[in-house]
Amino acid sequence: MKKSSRRYRVLEQKVDRKKIYTLEEAVLLLKELHTTRFDETVNLSVNLGIDPKKIQQPIRGSVTLPHGTGKTVRVLVLAQGEAAEKAAKAGADYVGGQELVDKIKAGWLEFDAVVATPDMMKLVAPLGKILGPRGLMPSPKTGTVTFDVDQMTTELKKGRVEFRMDRDGNVQLPVGKVSFPPEKLTENISAALEAIADNKPAAVKGQYFRVVALSLTMSPSVRVAPPRGASGNM
Asked: Is 148 exposed, middle or buried (CB count within 10 Å of its CB: 0-12, 13-18, 19+)?
């Protein structure tokens, strides 16, 4: 524990807490902060200028990162008939119906994303208490309840990431690995910020992006200025 704390303090000294870095500067700084032996995930955190109590629905959406997350995504598709065949051809890791639902109820959770056709939702609904807290519950709002299961499977495999604002007005999502070239990380982060901006409720006025920060799995956070031209940054 002491060794870990010492390491963290050393990393903190490299971050100017009074500075808001450009995206390019922040990405290069993250490279310097990478001192672990594993390929750390780069995480984007955004605090929005929104009072969650004053909007009917929390901000929720998705983004297909141009260069993926660096993680192999295991996709489970609940479908039958032709839709099931399409999902399998698109590369879904698990395809089925009631048998997979029963398996999940028994505690099996060896997948990273769930897609379901609308006609299967009557079977999926009871899984809400299991999948919901883990961010895995299929939803029409994020496109994971669809008959186009092949297209959604392809997007998830390529690096589609869902995001949702929490009760404190924060949005957090992975945007790649520290091993990615700087330009690829920058493009992924820009795409994520644009997706969050595009989900700005029309009724929200004033500053939308309050705080934007990047961090690694085991590093201090680095404050970042949203890219110029990102809609919603008022």
From this structure: middle
d(CA 179, CA 70): 9
pTM: 0.79
Let me know: does 230 contact 193? Beta carbons within 8 Å: yes
CA dihedral sign, ordered 87, 93, 96, 98: negative
Reading the chain (234 residues) residue by residue, the pLDDT tens digits are 344 578 888 999 999 999 999 999 999 999 999 999 999 999 999 999 888 777 766 788 889 999 999 999 999 999 999 999 999 999 999 999 999 999 999 999 999 999 999 999 999 999 999 999 998 999 998 899 999 999 999 999 998 998 989 988 999 999 999 999 999 999 999 999 999 999 888 878 788 999 999 999 999 999 999 756 444 443
Six-digit token string for 39: 């390929």
